[in-house]
Protein backbone atom coordinates (compact mmCIF):
# COMPACT_ATOMS: atom_id res chain seq x y z
CA UNK A 1 0.00 0.00 0.00
CA UNK A 2 1.27 3.49 -0.85
CA UNK A 3 0.01 7.07 -0.75
CA UNK A 4 0.20 8.73 -4.15
CA UNK A 5 -0.52 12.26 -5.36
CA UNK A 6 -3.27 12.39 -8.00
CA UNK A 7 -1.62 15.43 -9.63
CA UNK A 8 2.15 14.81 -9.79
CA UNK A 9 2.34 11.12 -8.89
CA UNK A 10 4.75 11.61 -5.97
CA UNK A 11 4.58 8.72 -3.50
CA UNK A 12 4.59 8.85 0.30
CA UNK A 13 4.93 6.40 3.13
CA UNK A 14 1.47 5.75 4.63
CA UNK A 15 3.03 5.57 8.09
CA UNK A 16 3.61 9.33 8.05
CA UNK A 17 0.85 11.83 8.87
CA UNK A 18 0.16 13.59 5.59
CA UNK A 19 -3.03 14.87 3.97
CA UNK A 20 -1.77 16.51 0.78
CA UNK A 21 1.20 16.26 -1.54
CA UNK A 22 4.00 18.83 -1.37
CA UNK A 23 2.62 20.14 -4.69
CA UNK A 24 -0.76 20.72 -3.02
CA UNK A 25 -2.46 17.83 -4.83
CA UNK A 26 -4.87 15.39 -3.20
CA UNK A 27 -3.54 12.01 -2.13
CA UNK A 28 -4.93 8.60 -2.88
CA UNK A 29 -4.27 5.27 -1.16
CA UNK A 30 -3.21 2.59 -3.61
CA UNK A 31 -4.19 -0.83 -2.29
CA UNK A 32 -2.40 -3.99 -3.36
CA UNK A 33 -5.13 -5.57 -5.48
CA UNK A 34 -3.21 -8.85 -5.85
CA UNK A 35 -4.04 -9.55 -2.23
CA UNK A 36 -7.78 -8.80 -2.14
CA UNK A 37 -10.28 -11.59 -1.57
CA UNK A 38 -13.37 -12.32 -3.62
CA UNK A 39 -15.95 -12.41 -0.79
CA UNK A 40 -18.88 -11.20 -2.90
CA UNK A 41 -21.41 -13.94 -2.15
CA UNK A 42 -24.31 -11.72 -1.05
CA UNK A 43 -24.11 -12.98 2.55
CA UNK A 44 -23.32 -11.50 5.99
CA UNK A 45 -22.72 -8.02 4.69
CA UNK A 46 -20.83 -5.61 6.95
CA UNK A 47 -18.10 -3.10 6.15
CA UNK A 48 -15.33 -5.25 7.59
CA UNK A 49 -16.33 -8.20 5.42
CA UNK A 50 -14.14 -6.41 2.83
CA UNK A 51 -11.14 -6.12 5.14
CA UNK A 52 -8.67 -7.28 2.49
CA UNK A 53 -9.41 -4.01 0.61
CA UNK A 54 -9.08 -1.84 3.71
CA UNK A 55 -5.55 -0.58 4.40
CA UNK A 56 -5.44 -0.31 8.21
CA UNK A 57 -4.15 -2.66 10.86
CA UNK A 58 -6.15 -1.52 13.90
CA UNK A 59 -9.92 -1.68 14.03
CA UNK A 60 -12.35 0.48 15.96
CA UNK A 61 -15.87 -0.49 14.96
CA UNK A 62 -19.49 0.20 15.88
CA UNK A 63 -20.76 -2.39 13.34
CA UNK A 64 -21.03 -0.01 10.43
CA UNK A 65 -22.06 -0.87 6.89
CA UNK A 66 -24.41 -3.66 5.88
CA UNK A 67 -27.03 -0.99 5.17
CA UNK A 68 -30.21 -2.06 3.37
CA UNK A 69 -30.78 -1.71 -0.33
CA UNK A 70 -34.45 -1.35 -1.27
CA UNK A 71 -36.24 -1.72 -4.59
CA UNK A 72 -38.40 1.41 -4.94
CA UNK A 73 -41.39 -0.38 -6.39
CA UNK A 74 -43.87 2.47 -6.10
CA UNK A 75 -41.55 5.18 -7.34
CA UNK A 76 -40.14 3.12 -10.17
CA UNK A 77 -43.66 2.61 -11.54
CA UNK A 78 -44.47 6.28 -11.11
CA UNK A 79 -41.27 7.30 -12.90
CA UNK A 80 -41.70 4.72 -15.66
CA UNK A 81 -38.53 2.80 -14.79
CA UNK A 82 -37.79 -0.90 -14.54
CA UNK A 83 -35.14 -1.06 -11.84
CA UNK A 84 -34.80 1.64 -9.23
CA UNK A 85 -33.07 1.04 -5.89
CA UNK A 86 -31.99 3.05 -2.91
CA UNK A 87 -29.03 2.26 -0.67
CA UNK A 88 -30.01 3.74 2.65
CA UNK A 89 -26.91 4.89 4.49
CA UNK A 90 -29.04 6.42 7.25
CA UNK A 91 -29.03 2.91 8.73
CA UNK A 92 -25.40 3.25 9.89
CA UNK A 93 -24.64 3.48 13.65
CA UNK A 94 -24.73 7.30 13.86
CA UNK A 95 -27.22 7.62 11.02
CA UNK A 96 -25.00 8.51 8.06
CA UNK A 97 -22.43 7.12 5.61
CA UNK A 98 -19.72 9.00 7.50
CA UNK A 99 -19.39 6.01 9.84
CA UNK A 100 -17.76 4.06 7.02
CA UNK A 101 -15.07 6.72 6.73
CA UNK A 102 -14.65 7.04 10.48
CA UNK A 103 -14.27 3.36 11.34
CA UNK A 104 -11.26 3.36 9.01
CA UNK A 105 -10.09 6.95 9.67
CA UNK A 106 -10.12 6.68 13.46
CA UNK A 107 -8.47 3.25 13.23
CA UNK A 108 -5.72 4.93 11.21
CA UNK A 109 -5.44 7.68 13.84
CA UNK A 110 -4.85 5.01 16.52
CA UNK A 111 -2.34 3.22 14.32
CA UNK A 112 -0.40 6.49 13.94
CA UNK A 113 -0.46 6.92 17.72
CA UNK A 114 -2.65 10.05 17.64
CA UNK A 115 -4.78 10.78 20.69
CA UNK A 116 -6.65 13.82 19.35
CA UNK A 117 -8.79 14.05 16.23
CA UNK A 118 -10.42 17.01 14.54
CA UNK A 119 -12.84 17.84 11.73
CA UNK A 120 -14.87 20.66 10.25
CA UNK A 121 -18.41 19.58 9.60
CA UNK A 122 -21.87 20.46 8.40
CA UNK A 123 -23.04 17.97 11.06
CA UNK A 124 -22.77 14.32 10.12
CA UNK A 125 -18.99 14.09 10.08
CA UNK A 126 -18.88 15.67 13.53
CA UNK A 127 -21.46 13.22 14.93
CA UNK A 128 -19.59 10.27 13.49
CA UNK A 129 -16.10 11.40 14.49
CA UNK A 130 -17.36 12.09 18.02
CA UNK A 131 -18.79 8.56 18.32
CA UNK A 132 -15.67 6.76 17.07
CA UNK A 133 -13.41 8.96 19.23
CA UNK A 134 -15.57 8.09 22.25
CA UNK A 135 -15.27 4.38 21.47
CA UNK A 136 -11.48 4.78 21.12
CA UNK A 137 -11.11 6.84 24.26
CA UNK A 138 -9.48 9.76 22.43
CA UNK A 139 -10.41 13.45 22.25
CA UNK A 140 -12.48 14.87 19.36
CA UNK A 141 -12.69 18.52 18.33
CA UNK A 142 -15.41 19.46 15.88
CA UNK A 143 -15.82 22.86 14.21
CA UNK A 144 -19.27 23.59 12.82
CA UNK A 145 -20.84 26.56 11.02
CA UNK A 146 -22.65 28.51 13.72
CA UNK A 147 -26.45 28.22 13.48
CA UNK A 148 -26.33 26.11 10.30
CA UNK A 149 -26.19 22.57 11.62
CA UNK A 150 -29.26 20.37 12.03
CA UNK A 151 -30.32 19.92 15.64
CA UNK A 152 -30.05 16.13 15.77
CA UNK A 153 -26.45 16.19 14.56
CA UNK A 154 -25.45 18.81 17.10
CA UNK A 155 -27.07 16.75 19.86
CA UNK A 156 -25.10 13.71 18.72
CA UNK A 157 -21.72 15.48 18.77
CA UNK A 158 -22.47 16.85 22.24
CA UNK A 159 -23.66 13.59 23.78
CA UNK A 160 -20.74 11.57 22.38
CA UNK A 161 -18.51 14.00 24.27
CA UNK A 162 -16.74 15.98 21.54
CA UNK A 163 -15.54 19.52 22.08
CA UNK A 164 -18.00 21.35 19.81
CA UNK A 165 -16.76 24.71 18.51
CA UNK A 166 -19.19 26.83 16.47
CA UNK A 167 -17.47 29.02 13.87
CA UNK A 168 -18.72 32.39 12.59
CA UNK A 169 -18.73 31.39 8.95
CA UNK A 170 -19.62 28.44 6.75
CA UNK A 171 -18.14 24.93 6.38
CA UNK A 172 -15.38 26.17 4.08
CA UNK A 173 -14.23 28.71 6.70
CA UNK A 174 -14.29 26.02 9.41
CA UNK A 175 -12.26 23.64 7.23
CA UNK A 176 -9.56 26.30 6.73
CA UNK A 177 -9.17 26.56 10.51
CA UNK A 178 -9.06 22.77 10.87
CA UNK A 179 -6.36 22.38 8.22
CA UNK A 180 -4.19 24.92 10.04
CA UNK A 181 -4.94 23.51 13.48
CA UNK A 182 -4.10 19.95 12.46
CA UNK A 183 -0.60 20.88 11.35
CA UNK A 184 0.12 23.43 14.12
CA UNK A 185 -1.36 21.50 17.04
CA UNK A 186 -0.59 17.92 16.03
CA UNK A 187 -4.23 16.84 15.92
CA UNK A 188 -5.23 14.19 13.36
CA UNK A 189 -7.60 15.59 10.74
CA UNK A 190 -10.48 13.43 9.63
CA UNK A 191 -12.13 15.46 6.92
CA UNK A 192 -12.49 13.71 3.59
CA UNK A 193 -9.24 15.13 2.18
CA UNK A 194 -7.74 12.52 4.48
CA UNK A 195 -7.55 9.66 1.95
CA UNK A 196 -8.13 6.98 4.62
CA UNK A 197 -11.68 8.26 5.10
CA UNK A 198 -12.41 7.40 1.49
CA UNK A 199 -11.01 3.89 2.01
CA UNK A 200 -13.95 3.25 4.34
CA UNK A 201 -16.54 4.96 2.17
CA UNK A 202 -15.56 2.98 -0.94
CA UNK A 203 -17.25 -0.04 0.66
CA UNK A 204 -20.60 1.40 -0.47
CA UNK A 205 -19.62 0.20 -3.96
CA UNK A 206 -18.65 -3.24 -2.61
CA UNK A 207 -21.99 -3.59 -0.84
CA UNK A 208 -24.03 -2.50 -3.85
CA UNK A 209 -22.36 -5.20 -5.95
CA UNK A 210 -22.54 -7.78 -3.15
CA UNK A 211 -26.24 -7.11 -2.46
CA UNK A 212 -27.50 -6.81 -6.04
CA UNK A 213 -25.17 -9.36 -7.59
CA UNK A 214 -24.57 -6.98 -10.50
CA UNK A 215 -23.25 -3.47 -11.19
CA UNK A 216 -26.02 -0.90 -11.80
CA UNK A 217 -25.93 1.33 -14.87
CA UNK A 218 -26.07 4.52 -12.83
CA UNK A 219 -25.37 5.60 -9.26
CA UNK A 220 -26.83 8.93 -8.15
CA UNK A 221 -25.75 10.69 -4.97
CA UNK A 222 -25.52 14.08 -3.27
CA UNK A 223 -22.26 16.00 -3.51
CA UNK A 224 -20.96 18.38 -0.85
CA UNK A 225 -17.24 18.26 -0.17
CA UNK A 226 -17.11 15.68 -3.00
CA UNK A 227 -15.43 12.89 -1.03
CA UNK A 228 -18.14 10.28 -1.27
CA UNK A 229 -18.54 10.28 -5.04
CA UNK A 230 -14.76 9.85 -5.31
CA UNK A 231 -14.78 7.05 -2.74
CA UNK A 232 -17.62 5.05 -4.31
CA UNK A 233 -16.00 5.27 -7.73
CA UNK A 234 -12.70 4.09 -6.23
CA UNK A 235 -14.56 1.06 -4.85
CA UNK A 236 -16.02 0.14 -8.23
CA UNK A 237 -12.64 0.66 -9.90
CA UNK A 238 -10.94 -1.66 -7.45
CA UNK A 239 -13.55 -4.36 -8.11
CA UNK A 240 -12.97 -3.88 -11.82
CA UNK A 241 -9.19 -3.93 -11.59
CA UNK A 242 -9.27 -7.00 -9.34
CA UNK A 243 -11.29 -8.73 -12.08
CA UNK A 244 -14.44 -9.20 -9.96
CA UNK A 245 -16.68 -7.06 -12.21
CA UNK A 246 -16.66 -6.35 -15.94
CA UNK A 247 -18.46 -3.04 -16.20
CA UNK A 248 -18.52 0.25 -14.30
CA UNK A 249 -21.49 2.47 -13.46
CA UNK A 250 -21.91 6.08 -14.54
CA UNK A 251 -21.56 8.35 -11.51
CA UNK A 252 -24.10 11.17 -11.20
CA UNK A 253 -23.44 13.85 -8.58
CA UNK A 254 -26.17 16.18 -7.37
CA UNK A 255 -25.64 19.52 -5.64
CA UNK A 256 -28.15 21.92 -4.13
CA UNK A 257 -28.62 24.85 -6.49
CA UNK A 258 -27.48 27.48 -3.98
CA UNK A 259 -24.33 25.46 -3.26
CA UNK A 260 -23.45 24.06 -6.66
CA UNK A 261 -20.03 25.31 -7.78
CA UNK A 262 -19.18 21.95 -9.33
CA UNK A 263 -22.47 21.38 -11.14
CA UNK A 264 -22.35 24.93 -12.49
CA UNK A 265 -18.83 24.59 -13.84
CA UNK A 266 -19.77 21.23 -15.36
CA UNK A 267 -22.90 22.52 -17.07
CA UNK A 268 -21.27 25.71 -18.29
CA UNK A 269 -18.19 23.75 -19.43
CA UNK A 270 -15.79 26.05 -17.66
CA UNK A 271 -13.14 25.79 -14.93
CA UNK A 272 -14.19 25.19 -11.36
CA UNK A 273 -14.56 28.32 -9.22
CA UNK A 274 -15.49 28.21 -5.52
CA UNK A 275 -18.73 29.86 -4.46
CA UNK A 276 -18.41 32.55 -1.77
CA UNK A 277 -21.78 32.26 -0.04
CA UNK A 278 -23.37 28.81 -0.41
CA UNK A 279 -27.01 28.65 0.69
CA UNK A 280 -29.48 25.74 0.88
CA UNK A 281 -31.91 24.14 3.31
CA UNK A 282 -29.89 20.94 2.78
CA UNK A 283 -27.34 22.10 5.36
CA UNK A 284 -25.26 18.91 5.02
CA UNK A 285 -24.18 19.98 1.54
CA UNK A 286 -24.04 23.74 2.12
CA UNK A 287 -20.46 23.94 0.81
CA UNK A 288 -18.97 26.46 -1.61
CA UNK A 289 -15.45 25.10 -2.02
CA UNK A 290 -15.55 21.28 -2.18
CA UNK A 291 -12.04 20.20 -1.16
CA UNK A 292 -12.18 17.00 -3.20
CA UNK A 293 -13.39 18.63 -6.38
CA UNK A 294 -10.41 17.55 -8.53
CA UNK A 295 -11.09 13.90 -7.67
CA UNK A 296 -14.85 14.22 -8.19
CA UNK A 297 -14.45 15.98 -11.52
CA UNK A 298 -12.27 13.14 -12.83
CA UNK A 299 -14.73 10.54 -11.57
CA UNK A 300 -17.62 12.06 -13.45
CA UNK A 301 -15.55 12.46 -16.62
CA UNK A 302 -14.05 8.98 -16.43
CA UNK A 303 -17.35 7.25 -15.70
CA UNK A 304 -19.28 9.16 -18.36
CA UNK A 305 -21.56 10.63 -15.71
CA UNK A 306 -22.87 14.11 -15.04
CA UNK A 307 -23.06 16.79 -12.35
CA UNK A 308 -26.45 18.42 -11.84
CA UNK A 309 -28.13 20.72 -9.36
CA UNK A 310 -31.62 20.76 -7.83
CA UNK A 311 -33.56 23.49 -6.04
CA UNK A 312 -34.49 23.38 -2.36
CA UNK A 313 -38.11 22.96 -3.45
CA UNK A 314 -37.24 19.91 -5.53
CA UNK A 315 -35.26 18.47 -2.61
CA UNK A 316 -38.16 18.85 -0.17
CA UNK A 317 -40.60 17.35 -2.66
CA UNK A 318 -38.30 14.34 -3.16
CA UNK A 319 -37.88 13.94 0.61
CA UNK A 320 -41.68 13.73 1.02
CA UNK A 321 -42.01 11.30 -1.89
CA UNK A 322 -39.42 8.88 -0.50
CA UNK A 323 -41.08 8.92 2.90
CA UNK A 324 -44.73 8.82 1.85
CA UNK A 325 -44.39 6.39 -1.08
CA UNK A 326 -41.60 4.13 0.11
CA UNK A 327 -41.42 4.49 3.89
CA UNK A 328 -37.87 5.83 3.83
CA UNK A 329 -37.19 9.01 5.81
CA UNK A 330 -33.98 10.75 4.83
CA UNK A 331 -32.51 14.15 5.55
CA UNK A 332 -32.86 16.86 2.85
CA UNK A 333 -29.31 16.49 1.43
CA UNK A 334 -29.97 12.80 0.87
CA UNK A 335 -33.21 13.47 -0.96
CA UNK A 336 -31.25 15.37 -3.60
CA UNK A 337 -30.40 12.05 -5.23
CA UNK A 338 -34.08 11.35 -5.96
CA UNK A 339 -34.62 15.01 -6.89
CA UNK A 340 -31.69 14.67 -9.31
CA UNK A 341 -33.10 11.49 -10.82
CA UNK A 342 -36.43 13.22 -11.43
CA UNK A 343 -34.67 16.16 -13.06
CA UNK A 344 -32.57 13.88 -15.28
CA UNK A 345 -35.32 11.33 -15.91
CA UNK A 346 -35.40 11.98 -19.68
CA UNK A 347 -31.71 11.19 -19.94
CA UNK A 348 -32.17 7.75 -18.40
CA UNK A 349 -33.39 4.79 -20.48
CA UNK A 350 -36.45 2.97 -19.18
CA UNK A 351 -34.58 -0.30 -18.69
CA UNK A 352 -31.46 1.09 -17.05
CA UNK A 353 -30.82 0.09 -13.45
CA UNK A 354 -30.29 3.01 -11.10
CA UNK A 355 -29.14 3.08 -7.47
CA UNK A 356 -29.80 6.21 -5.43
CA UNK A 357 -27.61 6.75 -2.39
CA UNK A 358 -29.39 8.30 0.57
CA UNK A 359 -26.67 9.49 2.88
CA UNK A 360 -28.25 10.48 6.20
CA UNK A 361 -31.27 9.69 8.40
CA UNK A 362 -34.29 11.99 8.37
CA UNK A 363 -34.48 12.18 12.17
CA UNK A 364 -31.28 14.20 12.22
CA UNK A 365 -33.19 17.21 10.93
CA UNK A 366 -36.82 16.98 12.11
CA UNK A 367 -37.33 20.76 12.13
CA UNK A 368 -37.45 20.91 8.37
CA UNK A 369 -40.60 18.74 8.41
CA UNK A 370 -42.29 20.44 11.34
CA UNK A 371 -41.70 24.01 10.15
CA UNK A 372 -44.92 25.30 8.65
CA UNK A 373 -46.85 22.21 9.75
CA UNK A 374 -49.58 22.72 12.30
CA UNK A 375 -51.08 19.88 14.28
CA UNK A 376 -54.89 20.12 14.55
CA UNK A 377 -56.52 21.10 17.88
CA UNK A 378 -56.56 18.18 20.37
CA UNK A 379 -59.83 16.25 20.58
CA UNK A 380 -61.69 15.05 23.68
CA UNK A 381 -60.75 11.45 24.57
CA UNK A 382 -63.93 9.88 23.15
CA UNK A 383 -64.90 7.88 20.07
CA UNK A 384 -67.47 10.55 19.12
CA UNK A 385 -64.84 13.27 19.06
CA UNK A 386 -62.56 11.04 17.01
CA UNK A 387 -65.33 10.30 14.50
CA UNK A 388 -65.92 14.01 14.06
CA UNK A 389 -62.41 14.62 12.77
CA UNK A 390 -62.35 11.66 10.37
N1 LIG B 1 -25.11 13.80 2.38
C1 LIG B 1 -24.98 14.05 3.69
C2 LIG B 1 -26.10 13.68 4.58
C3 LIG B 1 -23.80 14.65 4.19
O1 LIG B 1 -23.69 14.88 5.49
C4 LIG B 1 -22.78 15.00 3.29
C5 LIG B 1 -21.54 15.64 3.75
C6 LIG B 1 -22.97 14.71 1.93
C7 LIG B 1 -24.14 14.11 1.52
C8 LIG B 1 -21.94 15.02 0.91
O2 LIG B 1 -20.87 14.15 0.95
O3 LIG B 1 -19.06 15.77 1.26
O4 LIG B 1 -18.59 13.45 0.57
O5 LIG B 1 -19.66 15.05 -1.00
N2 LIG B 1 -21.38 16.06 4.89
C9 LIG B 1 -20.11 16.57 5.45
C10 LIG B 1 -20.23 16.75 6.94
C11 LIG B 1 -19.59 17.73 4.73
O6 LIG B 1 -19.53 17.58 7.50
O7 LIG B 1 -20.99 16.02 7.55
P1 LIG B 1 -19.45 14.62 0.40
Can you tell me about this structure?
With 390 residues, the protein is of the alpha/beta class. The protein has helices at 73-78, 98-111, 124-136, 151-159, 171-185, 195-201, 203-212, 227-241, 261-267, 293-303, 312-326, 332-344, 367-370, 383-389; strands at 2-5, 11-12, 27-30, 69-71, 83-88, 116-120, 139-145, 163-167, 188-189, 218-222, 250-256, 306-310, 353-358. The strands form three sheets. Strands 4-5-13-10-11-12 form a six-stranded mixed β-sheet, with helices on both faces. The chain has a four-stranded parallel β-sheet with strand order 8-7-6-9, sandwiched between helices. Strands 2-1-3 form a three-stranded antiparallel β-sheet. Helix 2 crosses helix 6 (195-201), helix 6 (195-201) crosses helix 8 (227-241) and helix 11 packs across helix 12. The model has no long low-confidence stretch (mean pLDDT 97). The site of ligand F0G has 22 residues, from helix 3, helix 8 and helix 12.
Amino acid sequence: MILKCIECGKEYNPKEVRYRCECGGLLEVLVDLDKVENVFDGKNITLWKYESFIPVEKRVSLNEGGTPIYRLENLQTELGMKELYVKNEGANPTGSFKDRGMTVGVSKALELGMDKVICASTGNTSASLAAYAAKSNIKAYVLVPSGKIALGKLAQAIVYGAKVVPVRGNFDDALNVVVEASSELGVYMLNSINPFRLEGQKTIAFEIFDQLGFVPDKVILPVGNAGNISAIWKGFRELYEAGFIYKLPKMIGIQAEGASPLARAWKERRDFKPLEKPETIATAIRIGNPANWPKAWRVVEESGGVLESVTDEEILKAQKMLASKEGIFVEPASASSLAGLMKLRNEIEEDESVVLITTGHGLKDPNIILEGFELPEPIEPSLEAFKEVL
